[in-house]
Amino acid sequence: TLFDHIGLAVGEYAGREKIPFVKLAAGTNAHVWEQGNPYSFRTGHTNYLQAKALATEAAKLPIKKWATVAPNYEYGQSMVASFREFLSELRPDVEWVGEYWPEALNLEAGPIVQALLRDKPEGIFVMVFGPDVVELHREGEKRNLFNNKAIFAPTIGYPEELRTLGANIPINWVTSAYPYETLEHSGSKQFLTAFRKKFQKDPSFGALHGYIGLKFLATAIQQAGSTNADAISNALKGITIDSPVGPLTMRAIDNHPNIGVWIGETAVENDRAYVKNIVFNSAEDLLPSDETILNLKSNTSRQE
């Protein structure tokens, strides 16, 4: 599932019907924590990890006034909440001067840009993606919205976004990345070679997680020696695979892999968009304590 509110509904169904559900890519924390169950898994980092990595970078900047623009559904709401929580914790002096919640993939840029100009933020957290970020950037450039501001846009650095925007990508926006061309892990090189041979193009962030998800599932079935739902779910917990980003373990405590986050800045060279100054943040440095996770899960259980 792509949209998090749909993923949560499928996860709830999977838990009720006892069917293994491996959700691909990143997303809401609730999928594996607050609303997690023994049958719901994911292949990517939660918003918690990504937001923490981005907030750590944002906290280093000598600015105080921030605004947010995010799609009005679970993914955007969860990401903004996590980013605000971490940045406010790291920088208690931060002031949140505006927040905007356009409908996903249906952003009307004019009114939002006008409102942001009135708010006068020094930093903007941009969670919109696809055509929405194109519209926001185009309208913002017309009115000089982004001049002398720090812009943090978590998804714009993924390969599919880079290829879509090309030379038109906003420059020096802080973002997440999947640096498949520079990863030294042997599994990354093998995956890249095989993907290019099969599809005559480079992999996307979605392709990476599709591969990781299927490999987790196939390895669990092989280890379980069965296609029984309970056997597969039990086998997935604690299982380790060799992935294109290195060895990954599906943590038994929360059905979440120990996958890290790459953070960098958007750039263009020879009309090709890429992410520069990439820094890797390990999952071990970003994940909450086991005690925190157990508290989140137990609080949900008590409410039920």
Question: Can you walk through the features of this model?
Answer:
The chain is 44% helix and 19% strand. By secondary structure, the protein is of the alpha/beta class. Helix 4 (109-119) packs across helix 5.
How is this structure best summarized?
By secondary structure, the protein is an alpha/beta fold. The protein has helices at 4-17, 47-58, 74-90, 109-119, 131-142, 159-165, 186-199, 205-224, 229-236, 283-286, 290-303; strands at 21-23, 40-42, 65-69, 95-100, 123-126, 150-152, 174-177, 240-243, 246-251, 256-257, 261-269, 272-281.
Features:
304 residues, alpha/beta, four-stranded parallel sheet, three-stranded antiparallel sheet, 11 helices
Outline the fold blueprint:
Layout: H1 4-17, E1 21-23, E2 40-42, H2 47-58, E3 65-69, H3 74-90, E4 95-100, H4 109-119, E5 123-126, H5 131-142, E6 150-152, H6 159-165, E7 174-177, H7 186-199, H8 205-224, H9 229-236, E8 240-243, E9 246-251, E10 256-257, E11 261-269, E12 272-281, H10 283-286, H11 290-303
Parallel strand pairs: 1-2, 3-4, 3-5, 5-6
Antiparallel strand pairs: 7-11, 8-9, 9-10, 11-12
Helix pairs in contact: 2-3, 4-5, 8-9
